[in-house]
TrEMBL record:
This is Endoglin. The lineage of its organism: Eukaryota, Metazoa, Chordata, Craniata, Vertebrata. It is found in: Cell membrane. InterPro entries: TGFBR3/Endoglin-like_N, ZP-N. It is a single-pass type I membrane protein. Pfam families: TGFBR3_N, ZP-N. It comes from Myotis myotis (Greater mouse-eared bat). Residues 637-713 are annotated as: Disordered. Residues 1-25 form the signal peptide. Residues 43-193, 198-325 form the TGFBR3/Endoglin-like N-terminal domain. The chain crosses the membrane at residues 578-605.
Length: 713
């Protein structure tokens, strides 16, 4: 082929290529930028994390590493656990690793939770049953510190979370160790809602006329390719009927969609989809393959004759997505948000007031407010004072510090509680904000710890026996209605002979041998415990100590520890002193044994019948044992003749009473045989008869009787 023929062919080929779909995609011009539409989603995908099974761990540890773009953020954290049927609730330690200051709103209903965090990064009000643990480890040493506390059950790293749901139920098919992996699906263990400012973008499609709009939701693939359903809620603020709109849903092939929309619109989706108002019906467009790139999805919207993209959102694999469009009219845009800009442009006075919490010492109340938090909340403060306006905050460079002794600046001390008010004046407001603050005057309070051996708590004791139940009472005086003390922890230190016995931890009983008892109306705290009965080596003394936690409505948590020395009594200890319950038990046991023995002897005597005869009759039988049965000779150890006291006297051997040999028998006279048996001869006036030995065998008649023979033998 010559050059004159080749050149037109090349030109024709280039013209054909210019009409290909690729060139059409490149021709789509759409400058995506943030719009006012809002999107929220729930996902279990985390940038990095792991989940493990630790069924035999005494303490299971969960670590949340959170990063925030703002100097101050709000976080809702909910911890859930299903009811443990017949088993004791597990002990849980939740570690919060934060890089910024967070106002935490925590909910953990009915869970004995320990929360470890840095006091400088968290402002929170602890719900009942949750105890704070100081976190001193830095980020590089955090995992080592956590492993020293218990077995790590989960780790999750999150970027800018708004709300977190952590479930503590065991996760099936999980490894035994937790090793964080990138793009981890936490499954049922954790779900979270991120902040989504600036996530929704939109643009106008050039060259397309009309008012049709497109809403594009793209779900990115997850770490595991398993079937799942994504719920999509679309709310359009259209007042003039249904809009001319199309919803484009693109995701992995294993994702199906459940659509809940408040307006009719055309739907284009990968995989199966169903509509909430038509339950049980599933739809699918055969041979539909949506592109998995931003440019390809914009091209798809253009092919559907959309003149603008009202919403374009890319989210990780989520369980639920909610999209709210502000209008159905022309495109509304907003400038790209700045990361440090709060949700409100004006000063968030309410949030700033929550940051003012007093730190209480024995005689001083102090409040601190950092300037970077004021800047983050767009708040300009003109003054910060107590109720007495002469007591103003000091400017210490990076923070404002307001402090006063309990005897000045308008402090009011009533029933061991110190009261005052903080007055904050804002430049943006004409009226100042006021907040009541309180501290506990610890110098005016005293705490008593007592051990009792009965549930009536009548007489205190300083000794307890191994295997014995003890009753403990902790009281505060004087009782104050505003202060409700709680038993935060108790332990019995038996060192060096034995380990420390944990009795109460995180305001919950530690073990089945410890029971929390109802507190008295005056705030007296009580519990009982059963000390183990056998220890090697046996401890001789121990220290019982309890920590009392107290909190007022507007103050931080205050703890006070009280302890006492106990003597440990071993059951086999020589010369041990019997405690009162032991003495009472022994006395009652002795009385019961004596009563039963007396009743048995009386029963034998009262049920023994006696024979009577006419006085003076020859050969008449005297009272004797009249049992209808006779023991055989081999039962008595004799030959085939019967035994009588005169003919076969008894002597004692190691095997019991036995008849004497014939050579050693005494003469067959009544007197001699009675004296041999140790019974004095009867009175001469008494009539004589024969007597049995209690075996039911009547002996021959004799001229002397053996009175009460059945009782003696």
């Amino acid at each position: 082929m010559d050059r004159s023929t080749l050149c037109p062919a090349v030109a024709l080929l280039l013209a054909v290529c210019s009409l290909s779909p690729t060139s059409l995609a490149e021709a789509v011009r759409c400058n995506l930028q943030p719009v006012d539409n809002e999107v929220t989603y729930i996902t279990s995908q985390v940038p990095r994390g792991c989940v493990a099974q630790v069924p035999n761990a005494t303490v299971e540890v969960h670590i949340l590493s959170l990063e925030f773009p703002r100097a101050l953020s709000q976080l809702d954290l909910t911890v859930q656990m299903s009811k443990q049927n017949g088993t004791r609730a597990r002990e849980v330690l939740l570690v919060l690793d934060l890089d910024k200051i967070v106002h935490l709103r925590l909910q953990a209903p009915g869970i004995p939770l320990q929360l470890a965090y840095n006091n400088q990064h968290v402002f929170t009000g602890m719900p009942q049953g949750v105890s704070a643990v100081p976190l001193t480890a830095v980020k590089d040493q955090l995992r080592t510190w956590a492993e020293s506390k218990g077995a790590i059950a989960s780790v999750a790293e999150l970027n800018d979370p708004k709300s977190i749901l952590l479930r503590l139920d065991p996760v099936s098919r999980s490894p035994s160790s937790c090793r964080p992996q990138p793009n981890m699906d936490m499954g049922h263990r954790l779900e979270w809602w991120p902040h989504t400012e600036g996530l929704v973008r939109g643009c106008a499609l050039e060259g397309v006329a009309g008012h049709k709009e497109a809403h594009i939701l793209r779900v990115l693939p997850g770490s595991e390719a398993k079937p799942r359903t994504v719920t999509v809620e679309v709310k359009l603020s259209c007042t003039s009927g249904d809009p001319d709109a199309v919803l484009i849903l693109q995701g992995p092939p294993y994702v199906s969609w459940l659509i809940d929309a408040n307006h009719n619109m055309k739907i284009r989706a990968t995989g199966n989809y169903s509509i909430k108002i038509f339950p049980g019906k599933s739809f699918r467009e055969e041979h539909l393959v949506l592109p998995d790139t931003t440019q390809g999805l914009l091209e798809e919207a253009q092919r559907l004759n959309a003149s603008r993209v009202a919403s374009f959102v890319e989210v990780p694999l989520a369980s639920a997505i909610s999209l709210q469009a502000s209008s159905c009219g022309g495109l509304q845009t907003s400038p790209t948000p700045v990361e440090t800009t709060p949700l409100k442009e004006t000063c968030n006075e309410e949030l700033l007031m929550t940051l003012l919490r007093p730190n209480c010492s024995d005689d001083t109340m102090t409040l601190e407010l950092k300037k970077n938090l004021m800047l983050s909340l767009k708040c300009n403060i003109s003054s910060l004072t107590f109720l007495d306006h002469r007591c103003q905050a000091e400017d210490r460079g990076d923070q404002l510090v307001l402090h006063s002794a309990y005897s000045s600046c308008g402090m009011r001390v009533t029933e061991s509680v110190v009261n005052n008010e903080v007055v904050v004046s804002f430049l943006s407001s004409s009226s100042p904000q006021r907040k009541a603050v309180q501290c506990i005057d610890m110098k005016s309070l005293s705490f008593q710890l007592g051990l009792y051996l009965t549930p009536q708590f009548l007489q205190a004791s300083n000794a307890i026996e191994l295997g014995q139940q003890g009753f403990v009472q902790v009281s505060m005086s004087p009782p104050t209605p505003e202060i409700m003390p709680k038993l935060d922890s108790c332990q019995l230190d038996l060192k060096p002979e034995a380990d420390t016995v944990e009795l109460i931890q995180n305001q919950a009983a530690k073990g089945s041998c410890v029971n929390l008892l109802d507190s008295s109306p005056h705030g007296v705290m009580r519990f009982s415990f059963l000390l183990r009965g056998h220890m090697v080596p046996t401890p001789k003394a121990g220290t019982l100590s309890c920590t009392v936690a107290m909190r007022l409505r507007t103050s931080s948590l205050v703890r006070r520890t009280v302890s006492m020395r106990l003597n440990i009594v071993s059951p086999d200890m020589p010369g041990k002193t019997l405690v009162l319950p032991a003495v009472l038990g022994i006395t009652f046991g002795a009385f019961l044994i004596g009563a039963l023995l007396t009743a048995a002897l009386w029963y034998i005597y009262s049920h023994t019948p006696w024979r009577s005869a006419q006085p003076g009759a020859p050969g008449a039988a005297r009272p004797a044992l009249a049992q209808p049965e006779r023991l055989s000779s081999h039962q008595l150890g004799t030959t085939d003749h019967e035994l009588t006291p005169g003919s076969q006297p008894f002597h004692s051997t190691k095997d019991g009473p036995c008849p004497l040999p014939l050579s050693q028998r005494p003469a067959a006279s009544g007197g001699t045989s009675l004296e041999h048996l140790g019974v004095p001869p009867p009175h001469p006036a008494e009539p004589s008869s024969s007597v049995g030995l209690g075996y039911g065998c009547p002996g021959p008649q004799r001229d002397r009787t053996l009175p009460y023979m059945s009782t003696l033998l």
